[in-house]
Design a protein that fits this description.
Number of helices: 8
CATH architecture of the largest domain: Alpha-Beta Complex
Order of helices and strands: EEEHHHEEEHHEEEEEEHEEHEEH
Shape: globular
Strand content: 25-35%
Distance between the termini: 26 Å
Number of domains: 2
Radius of gyration: 19 Å
Largest sheet: 10 strands, mixed
Length: 252
């Protein structure tokens, strides 16, 4: 299933599911109300669906199977937000060795040994998350705005001290993540052994979506082609099999 958060006109954000080759969006709460003459707390948001897990997916799946035109919209008529517009928490790991090597070659340095010893991460600003239809304002203090094609996962089942061989059980689904960076500011900040700060913390710096794809639909997450385009022009390509640190490493 492909879950989205959308708005229509001036409506509040609602949880939906993509249909018909992603051309249509089913309003899950409206579809539930049409069948059951009421609302379901399981479908209040995509976050509610993730937190409820299998129970919510079962309800949503039944609604998708019996979708009606009365509760379905053309995707082109809607505005898609990030699948979860304000996540409870975010961690951004550096998982691809090729990206690491390119970044350090650009500044004439060798990558740190620490990266090869454990997955390293920072906490992005969860309040600067935006969806695929949002504009990202260029920070006034930067002359070098950059992008990064990243692959994100959503944790459903909570846990602590999770064993690596059980980590996949906690993954609810996946999304595309584009992490914007003010490279000049980031370089200045991290020279002080702290950061990133303003180099990555600005309005709409973390673009996600267009949808959350549930883990069962993705199948093997390490056989996916990854492409980044700017104004339709391909600027980079890779494959998730090249992740040096897998999601299981990052969760454990």
């Amino acid at each position: 299933m492909r879950l989205v958060t959308f708005t229509s006109g001036n409506s509040l954000p609602r949880a939906g599911a993509l249909l018909e080759g992603d051309r249509k969006v089913l309003d899950l709460q409206a579809a539930y109300s049409r069948v059951h003459h009421g609302s379901s707390p399981l479908l209040e948001s995509v976050l509610a669906i993730v937190e409820a897990g299998a129970a919510a997916i079962d309800v949503a799946d039944q609604l998708v199977r019996s979708a009606s035109e009365a509760t379905t919209y053309d995707r082109a008529d809607l505005r898609l937000l990030a699948p979860i517009p304000c996540p409870p928490q975010m961690r951004d790991f550096l998982c691809f060795e090729k990206h690491l090597l390119q970044a350090f070659q650009a500044i004439g340095k060798k990558p740190p040994q620490a990266w090869y010893e454990r997955p390293l991460f920072y906490h992005p600003n969860r309040f600067s998350v935006c969806g695929p239809d949002a504009e990202v304002p260029w920070p006034a203090y930067s002359e070098s705005l950059d992008y990064e094609l990243e692959f994100g996962c959503y944790i459903g089942m909570p846990g602590k001290d999770i064993a690596r061989d059980r980590a996949h059980e906690h993954i609810f689904g996946y999304t595309i993540f584009n992490d914007f960076s003010a490279r000049d500011e980031q370089t200045r900040e991290m020279a002080g052994q702290l950061g990133p700060g303003k180099g990555k913390d600005f309005d709409n710096a973390n673009a996600m979506g267009p949808c959350l794809v549930t883990a069962d639909e993705i199948g093997d997450p390490y056989r996916l082609e990854m492409v980044v385009r700017v104004n339709g022009e391909e600027r980079g390509r890779g494959n998730s099999r090249d992740m040096r640190w897998k999601f299981e490493d990052c969760i454990a």
